[in-house]
Structure formats: structure tokens, C-alpha cells
């Protein structure tokens, strides 16, 4: 297993981290504990030492299951990671109370990496209102937490503000070869690198969408490396960034654990030909876009209640990543008034689109995709 040593408080972590949000589950939705223990053991025995859970994962069950596993191993032989659900805290006393609860569930007296979970503009404002940042020093001094960071889901500008507001030990972002221009993206990566703040990466295979790519892209991948899985291309691209401390994979099956362990045992930065293949894959993905909507929302609001960009996003994602069934589920769950079929063809949106998309005409494509 490849490892990296980074940070002000150095930690030599495995480049593959075990994300504990997609454990195998039983029919009742509860975690399949025997199978999960086998998967964690296999990963651990093959050098994975970064175990990443969070308070709400698996409907609040993940930390307890991870704690069951923690109790079977020497505590100093791995790094334990969890996250504070700050949106559930009305004040600092709540923050401290939840941390105590987490330590109990995890059967430990400390966590190695503690994150303020899934920060966005709204959550960041709440953290500031609680005046949480000055409290973090005493949390570190207590020894219950060894490093403080945050995970992030919002635009780059918010990321920059948060990164500059505190002396973070690390941070965690969504990053993969198709998501370099959204959220923190490549600019966020470069900013953290310039500040010597190591990064943990989530969604390296884009929630599984890069693990089973469309045929024409897979053919290119196989031409260069017949034995590399689609997921391993995505993982190698992320792992090639030197400010990355750990790449998280939320593994659900033993097969995935074995494949990921193999990938991260032999991983090397992509060479020029492999980088060119990733660039070609990006272009082939782009060519599958049905409507060139950027999600800018200049066309909104629609006087009849349509969510115009969401309709186009679902259509595009269905085609780009060959995930029609999942996107249809998303469409079916929308309010009737927000759906493409509710378009009254009034034309109020047409002149507002900087991409000159004939919105009412393109809504027909969405209806054909998801309602016919
Ligand atoms: S044409 Fe359709 S999408 Fe555009 S504003 Fe009118 S109802 Fe809304
Ligand atoms: S204005 Fe055009 S590009 Fe922007 S969200 Fe609306 S349809 Fe998409």
C-alpha cells in the first residue's frame, strides 16, 4: 500500500482511505456487520490505515460499527477519522456533547482527524454565529482530537474564505477528473497546496459514475491498459496529485476493497500517454451532453414554477454517465410544477439564456427522456 506523510502534525497515512458511508446492508437497511468487519480487516491487513466515518452515516449506525472494529485492533495502528455535524449544534455545549457521544460510539479516547462536516455558506455562517473557531484550540488541547479540518461542498469563493479563516491541519474536498471546475476544484486544490494544507479527497469516482464508463470511453481505457478497471483510472488520476494525503473510497463489497487495494499498492502518477487518455475521456464525456446548460440560472425564475437547470442537469447526467435509471428517479421525485412537462411555452425564459438555448424546445427532450 502506498503511503504519504504530510501535515504540520505529521501522519503517515495510506493513500487509500476507507470511507464508511457505503457499507454492505441487510434487507432491513441495517449494516451487515460480519461482512463489514471482513472488509475492514482485509483493508487493514493490506495497509489501509485511514478509517473515515461521520456522525450521520448509515442513519447514525456507522460510527458504532466502526467502534466495534476499533476495539479489535491496537489503537495506534491506524488513523480514526470522524466529523462534527455542526448543523445539529445550537451552541458549543452541543458540539462538545456530540464529540463525547462519538468517542463513546467509536470505543476510543481520541480521534486522529476531526472534521467540521460538509461545510457550505449556510453552515459556515452558523459556525461563525456559534463562535466555534476559538473553541477548537481547547478541543485540540484536551487530546480528544489530534487534527482539525473541514469537509466542503459549495463554490470556490466559500472554500477560499473558510480556508483563510483558521489554521487548519487538513481539509477534504470532492475532486475527480470530471469535477475540476466545480466546488473547490483545481483552484481549491492549488490554494490548499500553496498553504501547505494536505487534502483528503472524496468522490474520486464521482459517486460510482466513473466506475463504469460508457463503451466508447472504456474502449480507450482498455486500449492503453487492458487490465485497469475504469475506477482505477479515476483513482490514479486523483492519487497523482502530490498534495493529496488520502483518497477516500466508500466501499460496499469485498470485490471493491480488493480492486482498490490492488490499485493503491501499485499506483504511480499517470504518464503522458495516460494523461492524454484522461483528456480524451473528458472530451468523449462532453460530447454526450444533450443541452449545453451551465446551470447559471439566469433563466430563473420561471413564472410557471419549472426548475429549468435541474431538468437539463438530470438529462445531461443521464446521458453523460449512462445512469438513466438514477436520473429518472430524481426526475420522478420533483414537484409536478417543476418538471419539463409543465412548461407552458410562454417564452419568458428564452431571451435570458447566455447559451442561447431554446429552452421550451429542449424541454421536449427532457419529457421524451423521462416521461415517454
Ligand atoms: S417557456 Fe417554459 S420554462 Fe420557459 S418560462 Fe415559460 S413555462 Fe417556464
Ligand atoms: S440560462 Fe441557460 S445556461 Fe443558464 S441555467 Fe438557464 S438554461 Fe441553463
Automatic annotation (TrEMBL):
InterPro entries: 4Fe4S_Fe-S-bd (IPR017896), 4Fe4S_Fe_S_CS (IPR017900), AKR (IPR020471), AKR2_Oxidoreductase (IPR053135), NAD(P)_OxRdtase_dom_sf (IPR036812), NADP_OxRdtase_dom (IPR023210)
Stretches assigned to the 4Fe-4S ferredoxin-type domain: 334-362
GO molecular function ontology, one term from the record: oxidoreductase activity
UniProt superkingdom: Bacteria
Key words of the record: Iron, Iron-sulfur, Metal-binding
One Pfam family of this chain: Fer4_17
Protein name per its UniProtKB record: Aldo/keto reductase
Organism: Holdemania filiformis
